[in-house]
Amino acid sequence: MIPDAILNQLELPGATYEPVPGGDINRSYCLHTAHTTYFLKINRHHPHTRLFEKEAAGLRELAGAGMLRVPAPLKWGVAGPDQYLLLEWLHACAPVQHSWEALGLSLAKMHGKPQPFFGLAEDNYLALWPQDNTPADTWPEFYSNRRIIPLARSLTDAGKLNKADLANAGNFCKRLPELFPDEPPALVHGDLWNGNLLFLPDGSPALFDPAVYYGHREMDIGMTSLFGGFDTGFYKAYHQSYPLQPGWEQRLPYTQLYPLLLHAWLFGGHYIRDVRNILASFS
Signal peptide span per the entry (predicted)? Predict the structure, then answer.
């Protein structure tokens, strides 16, 4: 049920709704009015304050790049113990010929526009993890200090990783300058798995649930392959527009370490083993 306090703030008289399945983080609903349809997300306000305000800002950042379609954030706020985000409803359809190629081309164009630094003007979230986006001059500095070490320490403090794992994470970070090719910062979606992608009725792609920042573009590529589901046409079109540097396939585990650390923090289980498998080669 949508709390009355939220319905009152939305000011959509006569709206009907039903829950939307899927997702582990938020309660989601499809709202219908006489004239249009909306997507509504709800979560507790504490401890993840400003969660949806940050998501709305990420959507605006992606929209401002002008390369990829995203749902327009329409209203967000706090009502009682809950926070909410009202979004434009995007009608999902099956991809058509060249849909995946269009996604690859658009993402490559977005990545091809250099950004001023690694980081972002404000912090945000990856799922429920607070992302520290304090700017850094280099990718190794940013990836180490803003991504890998904070999560590895949190997992160690929680007893999910041990001191040897944390030491291996430190060794990994020391080697980052030699592991990643030197490239300018790029705007990345930040959580680009197939569950955050849909295709519109005209076959064009749209993305949602971002965790944006200016980072190494291979972070988005690694995320696309972490859980599968991306057609080969996507990679072919991306490479043709903005070729990845040699060895990108061997670097996939390094880009995937951050989301795997997050999943270990959220869910534990086999994600802890996946993290340890990557870190083991840096013992």
Answer: none
Sign, CA torsion 181/184/189/194: negative
Cα atoms in the Cβ-side hemisphere of radius 13 Å centred on 165: 23
User: What's the pLDDT at 22?
Assistant: 75
Residues 236 and 176: their CA atoms lie apart, in Å, by 27
Q: Which residues are catalytic?
A: 191
Q: Is the pLDDT of residue 280 over 80?
A: yes
> For 128-137, how does the pLDDT look when each residue is reduced to its tens digit (9 = 90+)?
999 999 999 9
pTM to 2 decimal places: 0.96
Burial (CB < 10 A; 0-12, 13-18, 19+), residue 91, is exposed
Length, in residues, of the chain: 283
> Average model confidence (pLDDT) for the chain?
97
At 38-55, the pLDDT tens digits run 999 999 999 999 999 999
Q: Is 4-88's fold the same as 99-280's? A: no
214 to each of 19, 117, 181, 187, 205, how far by Cα in Å?
A: 34, 7, 16, 4, 21
Residue that is written with structure tokens 């396939």 in the block: 249
4-88 architecture in CATH? 2-Layer Sandwich (3.30)
Name the superfamily (CATH) of residues 99-280. Aminoglycoside phosphotransferase (APH), C-terminal lobe (3.90.1200.10)
Strand, coil or helix: 118? strand
Q: Give the amino acid at 88.
A: E
